[in-house]
Amino acid sequence: MKRNEYDVAVIGAGAAGLAAAAVTAKAGASTVVIDRDVRPGGVLNQCIHNGFGLHYFKEELTGPEYAARMIRKATEAGAIFRIGSSVMEISPAQADGRRALTLYSKESGVEIILAKAVILAMGCRERTRGNLATPGSRCAGIYTAGLAQRMLNVEGKLPGTSAVIVGSGDIGLIMARRLTWSGIPVKAAVEIQPKPAGLARNIAQCLEDFGIPLYLSTAVTKISGKDRVESVTIAPLDDPTAERVIECDTILYSVGLIPENELSRKAGVVLDPKTNGPVVEEGVYETTEKGIFACGNVLHVHGLADQASEEAERCAESALRSIGMR
Amino acid sequence: MYDVCIIGAGATGAAAAYWLARKNVQVVLADKEADASFGVSKANSGIVHGGFHYSVSKTLKGKLELEGNRMFPAMAKELGFPYNQCGIIVVAYSEDQLEEVRKLYNQGIENGVEGIEFCSKERMYELEPKLCEGCLGGVFAPQGGVVEPYAYVFSLVEDAERNGVVFERNFEVVSAEYQDNVWKMKSASGKELSAKYVINAAGLYSDKVSAIFGGEEFEILARKGEEYLLDRLSPAYPTRVVFPVPTHTSKGVLVIPTAGGTTMVGPTAHIVPDKDDTDTTAPDREEIFELAQYMVKGVSKRDLIAAFAGLRPALAGGDFMIKISDKAPAFIQASGIQSPGLTASPAVGKLLVSLLEKAGLKMDDKKDIAPVPPKRRLREMSAEEVDELYQKDPAWTNIICRCEKISEAEIVDAVRHGHVTLDAVKLHTRAGMGRCQGGFCSAKIWAIISRETGIPVEELTKRGKKSNFFNGSIADVAFKGDSYETK
Lengths: 326, 487
Fold this sequence. Notes:
The complex is a heterodimer.
Chain A: E1 2-11, H1 15-26, E2 31-34, E3 50-52, E4 61-62, H2 63-77, E5 80-82, E6 85-90, E7 99-105, E8 109-120, E9 124-126, H3 129-132, E10 142-144, H4 145-153, E11 163-166, H5 170-181, E12 186-190, H6 200-207, E13 214-215, E14 218-224, E15 231-236, E16 244-247, E17 250-253, E18 257-259, H7 262-266, E19 292-294, H8 305-322
Parallel strand pairs in A: 1-2, 1-8, 2-5, 8-19, 10-17, 11-12, 11-17, 12-13
Antiparallel strand pairs in A: 3-4, 6-7, 7-8, 9-18, 14-15, 15-16
Helix pairs in contact in A: 1-2, 1-8, 4-5, 5-6
Chain B: E1 2-7, H1 11-20, E2 27-30, E3 47-48, H2 60-79, E4 83-84, E5 88-92, H3 95-111, E6 117-120, H4 121-127, E7 137-141, E8 145-147, H5 149-162, E9 166-168, E10 173-179, E11 182-187, E12 192-200, H6 206-212, E13 221-230, E14 241-243, E15 254-257, E16 263-266, E17 270-272, H7 282-295, E18 304-314, E19 321-324, E20 331-335, H8 341-358, H9 383-392, E21 399-401, E22 406-407, H10 408-416, H11 422-429, H12 442-453, E23 477-480, E24 483-486
Parallel strand pairs in B: 1-2, 1-12, 2-9, 5-14, 12-20
Antiparallel strand pairs in B: 3-8, 4-8, 5-7, 6-7, 10-11, 11-12, 13-16, 13-17, 13-18, 15-16, 19-20, 21-22, 23-24
């Protein structure tokens, strides 16, 4: 079993983790940034649309471009990468205040990393059809918007022939446009709230520009289909009898994001039931566990990647102070 | 030509295959679905019942339930499927219910159930501290427990395969003819099989299969049960399986500590006209949560991660029908095997072997039984053990499913056992069964199945037939004037 020591261990190499690692490494702290995926960049790698970087880099970039710049920043600052590596556990603080991270990877097997400060930047996961318990069939053709995005943009696979978007989160809106451009007509986006969840610019550029109807205050009451989705039934909340059936073979769920904090919970970090993110001291970003910090979407879901990166830089400064390097 | 063809690779058919694999006969197990356990056996509560719901002397299902219950610990040890003998409690909330519970206890005593207890209120809270207020007493059956039903069925089928049984997937029998003491069968896709004896273990469709072979005429009713699965961090996870007092149609809505470590609530029980109707519904969801929240603290819809429905194949009268057919030659019926069919299945399988012998099939015990390869699960291993396995196979330290902690090595093992659909890999390994419901791991699993089998990702399915995931590749999309079209 390999053992390595660093000043700072950052978990997650997305918009937040890369920005945090760049700051700590530049300050001279030995920094390792760990990610489960085989390439750093997190979800940015599948977001091939533009609109990233306007705040942080003052220019408009696509997701992979934003990721590439962040990776360069972290690399040039001297951060060490562990990709294809899953953190299985964060130990309680040892007598010297350090924590041991247990990593599994195909490359190195089991590796123990000792770090003076740990920065959580694991991002979030998508809520699913199962979380909502939408009634109906469990046939093929039901995806989270992010999974369909990955299959289309990274693997180049078409998820179906006609689609309905459930929810109106930004990934769902972006995917409505992406599917249309891929020859997959999008019949509707269905949002249970009276207002759309995504950014106004995405409503305009991804739905309105393509004439995709957005049904607000409307519930999905049934998914039908034997082997594959055949239709989805929707009904307005104020008149549940006014059901209508939309034929489609693909349903994408874009119904919210949940900070991915199971690792944090296991390490004893207390979570805020409102945000599902760790409870942290305002502006300090330290969790209830000493020496464990949190930033980006693992802390609370941000509207823009830029905001996650900016927050991560403030968090990294705070982590540096805690180990006496600021 | 085979000696025996078993139709249906659910718990009943798989158990028959497992026991027949220990005899020197040629056996084929045929199922219309893309994998074993894809019908009734994959979608149920996963309970190994405690032997007190039915009379052992008056019902066949009661007798076989108790026999099966007693066989489970040894089978789980041998085959390595997830099983937990956590015990079952039935909770009474009124004086009337206490009367009913007393009857269950008496039935258990009469049946000869070991260790069954009639419990005071205090004893009930000691057995299950998560019970809600208001319990007046109940029954405790320590021999009851939970099993991962699909893992159990897969392990039976894989053991049978190791010992010479042939498993034919996607074989839907559409016609059969008996000539010169041999059954000749044809599948929907035109494949043929012949065997001297046939066992009808076709579950929901055993009525249809019986008709094809000219056997007894009967009708199987589908009684639907919905189940709701909660995150493994749900505070509701009980110590025992918690039952309410049963009604005359079902054992009621349970709170189940599943063998996989999650909490499950359900099932409901409603007859449905369509045997393919496994839709979940909003009214059943509400009913289940209301009843479950009444029994166990911490049950919350906030923790919901998945829902499913299964169908119980019920015969009029409610008992199992397991016998040599009076009408069709060399044909054995195993029908109406609804709850407690999973619990009973090891005993049902044995009974079917003895019926084959009675019907004239001569068989002796096989001398050499292939040993069961050790079943390793990453989530149950220490870092030291994992590192040791990594030295032999680096796939052990490649985490594919983060929610359930499933390694690439486990996915590869499932695929190499012939499980090539996403649902079968999920049921075999638990990958995709956790809180993200495959959002992160599906793409990785598709890639592994494709790499191992050579099947292009575009052709992979969720569960066989037309349950494809993809419709070609982005390279096929062409811009035509003002629209985009797929080739």
